Amino acid sequence: MTLKYEFPKGFWWGTATSGPQSEGSADVDGKSKTIWDHWFEIQPERFHNGVGPEHTSTFYSNYKEDIKLLKETGHNSFRTSIQWARLIPNGVGEVNPKAVEFYNNVIDALLEEGIMPIMNLFHFDMPMCMQEIGGWESREVVDAYAAFAKKCFELFGDRVKHWTTFNEPIVPVEGGYLYDFHYPNVIDGKRAAQVGFNTMLASAKAIEAYKALGQDGKIGIVLNLTPSYPRSTENAEDVKAAHIADLFFNRSFLDPSVKGEFPSDLVELLKENDVLPTYEANDLEIIKNNTIDFLGVNYYQPRRIKAKETEVNKDVFMPDWFFDNYEMPGRKMNPYRGWEIYEKGIYDICINLRDNYGNIEFYISENGMGVEGEEQYINAEGVIEDDYRIEFIKDHLAWLHKGIEEGANCRGYHLWTFIDCWSWTNSYKNRYGLIALDLATQKRTIKKSGRWFKELSEQGGF
Ligand code: BGP
């Protein structure tokens, strides 16, 4: 069969999930609380339908069967995360043997099925004991995280050859310190800047620890890139506003991760507004010397930006002082999640990485479509016919293919997600999986997209 879109040999086909969203067993076998467990205890009403982080799928107890389903849906690679609160329940010190056993079993089972594990070390899941001493505002936590990362490399690095230090590090900054959708629900741009800087430093320190061990693998970071498009490219104020949004939400982590340096215009802007984070003498050198080997790109949506038109409260520094979001007429929306669908964004990312970031090796580490009420698409055989998801993937892959043809160094495509999973404050509102989960019975049923994904992976394209 001739394929219209054929991807390079050895392309990574798979999905991503995270420990806190899939493992369940939140308080089993010595795992301590994360900020999510804590926040749900004190404010359950902030979670969709009051469904908290203990209601995930049951990967902790059911990983063997789930890994068979990975195989059945054509995965040759898979990303999940190691929960810090499970491996080192006090944040520092003693390692939990039950957690070591679990992650060893998962890694071995993946390898037995010929599925390459990509292990991530932080997916929004700050151990509560670490938050209590300041979370990412604290240097002690930065060092504790680096020690946790080193422990993971020592324990699992003989088999795991692809690591990522963080998933979407900008999200806890936005959610926890700017826009109130993660614990600790602070709204303060100055503190946000410090949290962002310390997270970046923590990533570099983990990379430093990895390199010092001399293991023969690669280490990277997963960033959610949101290309920023100005309302009008002819309006200098719109262009400037889009540039500033790009500095805050993309380049704040992309530049130091790939190039080892923060963008000078971002530094200037923070300085002018008296919100530059504090740092120690050799922090910048650590960041400079410990850049990534490869990048994971999560792509969901672009940002549409216009010059600031609305009034701002100048009491607390916020990125929003410099731009407004622009509701571009006619843009295609995912009505459930409220996110714009703009397939070409994935191509623009390819070209940006090719031209401005040394053509860094990357893979699409998340892309996906969250849908409510998928039960309405169940056919007589009990299978969800999610043709919209297949179309969504194809449309993005077509643009990704074009980017690769034009020289972008992309090694794979991972969908979010494998089995429908629990999702932060949205809980089970939006379903993203190749496999449907019945939360009450824990029954898994492969969706039409899951069958199609296997074909896609086996053919190496479509
Ligand atoms: C990404 C996260 C995932 C996942 C996904 C879908 O930002 O890395 O953890 O949740 O988005 O988003 P949501 O669950 O908010 O709909």
TrEMBL record:
InterPro entries given in the database record: GH, Glyco_hydro_1, Glyco_hydro_1_AS
Signal peptide boundaries: none
Originating organism: Turicibacter sanguinis
Active site: E366
PANTHER family attached to this UniProt entry: 6-PHOSPHO-BETA-GLUCOSIDASE GMUD (PTHR10353:SF139), GLYCOSYL HYDROLASE (PTHR10353)
Annotated GO MF terms: beta-glucosidase activity
Gene Ontology BP annotations: carbohydrate catabolic process
Keywords, ordered alphabetically: Glycosidase, Hydrolase
Family affiliation: Belongs to the glycosyl hydrolase 1 family.
Pfam family, one: Glyco_hydro_1
GO cellular component annotations of the record: cytosol
Record-given protein name: Family 1 glycosylhydrolase
